[in-house]
Design goal:
Structural class: mainly alpha
Shape: globular
Distance between the termini: 35 Å
Number of strands: 0
Strand content: under 5%
Largest sheet: none
Number of helices: 6
Length: 109
């Protein structure tokens, strides 16, 4: 049984932010990965944020961009805004104005 990706994302967020539990980024990453295995865009975005900040994993901006882009491609507006900013400023990706504009437009639909 795969589990409930929404519950996995909630647990991950609680551990990442320390809501009602001791903050534990490695547990956050564990639960985000479970969600990503189910192709959940919220989990992808969360795991991307962990890579961006180095929460529970070594900081890796290119891995962050990979997961955030995956979430953006699945329609998650927050991820679309974030990947647009990353393309605009060359964070974890090659700076690309056309890609930035595309993702900003997608986020604003």
């Amino acid at each position: 049984m795969a589990g409930d990706s929404k519950a996995q994302n909630n647990l991950a967020a609680y551990y990442k932010e320390g809501y009602g539990v001791q903050q534990d980024c490695s547990k956050a990453v564990y639960w985000y990965r479970k969600s990503v295995q189910q192709n959940d865009p919220v989990g992808m975005y969360g795991l991307g944020q962990c890579y961006a900040t180095g929460c529970g994993v070594p900081q890796d901006l290119s891995m962050a961009a990979r997961y955030i882009l995956g979430a953006a491609q699945k329609g998650l507006k927050e991820a679309q805004q974030t990947i647009a900013y990353m393309y605009e400023h060359g964070i974890g990706v090659v700076q690309n104005s056309a890609s930035a504009n595309y993702w900003y437009n997608q986020a604003n639909k």
